[in-house]
Amino acid sequence: MARVAGSVRVAAAQFAVGEDKESNLAAVLRAVDEAAALGAALVVLPEFCNHLSWYRDRAHALREACRPEDPFLTAVAQAAARHGLFVKLHVTLATEGAAPDRDDGMRITAASLLFGPDGTLLGRADKQTLMGSENDHLDPADTEGPVIDTPLGRFGLYSCMEGVVNEVCRGLALRGAQVLLNSLNSFALDEASLHIPVRAAENKVWVVAANKIGPLIPDDHLAAVSAGLGVPPESLHGAGESQIVRPDGTVAARAPRTREAVVVADIEPAAADDKRRPDGTDLFAARRPWLYGPIASEPRPSSPFPAERAASVTAAVLRPAGQGETALREAVELVGRAAGAGARLVVLPELFLWPDGVVPGDDPDPSTLTSAAVDALAGALRGTDALLACTFPEAGVHTGLLLGAGGPVLRVPQLHPCARHSGWAVEKPAPPSTHDAPWGRVALVVGDDALHPETFRLAALAGADTAAVCHTGAEPWEHTLGLPERSAENRINVVAAGHGQGAIHALPVNFGLWQSRDGGFTGRISHPLTTPAAGPLTLSDVHPAQAVRRLVSRRTDLVDGRPWRLAGALTAPDPGALAAPDPGALAVPEPAPRTS
């Protein structure tokens, strides 16, 4: 397909939606007109543009849903053709077909629709992960959405909750999407600060995301819902901040919090084809899909968690200075201080004995220091039940060790290869394992394994409540977005030490949307409580027992609710070779001829 050379201008639009379909359509067309006036070739609109996502019953949802032949979709198709631009619309869509546990012969889906510049429908993606009350009246997708090849680039469609977990965006990027188009219906502030930009950075793709403003609850229910949740009415409004995000996770354009707006940015879709880190490692080529089978497997019926999990324990992140023997002496002293202060889990940066975690290519035997270092570090734990996470070269394998006072209790090889270790490390991937401490279950994450969302998903599926991460950060997103998101999307505490960086990400007690709270609503639904590393020793508490609380909203489990049935791209050896699914026939009336 012929490509548009250079950059293209794209737009994200935000506005309020109510219960009157005519007013909602007027807002949609107003946004399309404004995007066209700003020179955009593509505009993304919010989720549920046809009606508030709030229904009295299934029959009400069915009455308000769009149909393939209805005037709402026709008008949008005509607007796309009139302006000659791509329009990503999101509506509830009713089509004939059997749905599980429904007896009305219809499917009602939360549907992302992409109209082309001639008004034709290019693709449809039904929402795979429904949020809260959406489960009551809507039906989840029964096929994964397509990657749509256009002259502007390859587009993937998703919406809201599908971006609060990683699988949908990961699958689209693995199948070749360069630009992900996200429609949101959210009052969560951590959408804009975390969940939207991390999907760009972890996949090295562009993201264009459009959220709502205004009440997301009908006027006649708003006061009661506000009082019942103990949440101010204004906190139940769309959080705005629609944005366009670069493949490095930085924001190219952002809309305000509370005002109707259309924002634009010029993007280069082809830039998303480069998946290399600064050291030359290709993030996608480094994946190990044969290890990810549990992610695409049916959730187990019983809890994976150990019987004992403490409500709170102290963790420590260390950053010793120097290298070699100097770094070891300081590390031993810091480990002793941390354990003496009550830390039960202590984490050192990846390969802390070597500068910036890089073993020199002229080192004849990088394992020389390992045995003595392990003995010295274990000795610093003597008389305590603290655990220490660190990494060393062992027989040519970059190996993570979890040490107790008696020595190693867990060994984990780095699962994903990286270019900066290629001079000495050999690959020895193995299924990840965990260790049961008296206070909870610990997963050990080694080096570049921290870059891959699959690593932490496997840990969560194994019942880990805390991940000890020994890494070397190379790009800002890895610690500002990546590790906080691994905590948020898996309900797992993350204790991460890196060269020049690090943080303790603890699970919040006040979590989710429709749940009781100990304090006021902050606007965040899953963002962890982050304590950045400051100085050589940082102490903070983590909350292992909170890991069992995975319901981000009623009937929406962050881990077991992942779209595992449609996660085949994550486990396929060559996901780009997977045939794009049929988006489903959705005929619309012939659009009006384009006019200048």
Global morphology: globular
Compute the number of helices.
Answer: 12
- The strands making up the biggest β-sheet line up spatially as 5-4-3-2-1-12
Q: Could you tell me the strand content as a percent range?
A: 25-35%
Largest sheet descriptor: 6 strands, mixed
User: Unreliable segments (pLDDT under 50, ≥5 consecutive)?
Assistant: 579-596
Helical content stands at: 10-25%
Mean pLDDT: 92
Give the terminus-to-terminus CA distance: 26 Å
Which value, in Å, is the CA radius of gyration?
25 Å
Structural class: alpha/beta
Strand element count = 26
Main attributes of the structure:
596 residues; alpha/beta; 6-stranded mixed sheet; 12 helices; 25% strand; disordered C terminus
Description:
The chain has 596 residues and is an alpha/beta fold. Helix content is 22%, strand content 25%. It has 12 helices and 26 strands. It has helices spanning 21-37, 58-64, 71-83, 134-137, 167-174, 190-203, 219-229, 324-340, 370-380, 453-461, 477-490, 568-571, and strands spanning 8-14, 42-44, 86-96, 106-115, 121-126, 147-150, 153-159, 179-183, 206-210, 243-245, 251-254, 261-267, 313-318, 343-347, 387-394, 397-404, 407-413, 434-437, 440-446, 466-470, 493-498, 501-506, 529-532, 537-542, 551-553, 556-557. The strands form 5 sheets. It has a 6-stranded mixed β-sheet with strand order 5-4-3-2-1-12. Strands 6-7-8-9-10-11 form a 6-stranded mixed β-sheet, covered by helices on one side. Helix 5 (167-174) links the parallel strand 7 (153-159) and strand 8 (179-183). Helix 1 (21-37) packs parallel to helix 3 (71-83), helix 6 (190-203) crosses helix 11 and helix 8 (324-340) packs parallel to helix 9 (370-380). The chain starts with 7 loop residues before the first strand and ends in a 25-residue tail after the last helix. The model is unreliable at 579-596 (pLDDT under 50).
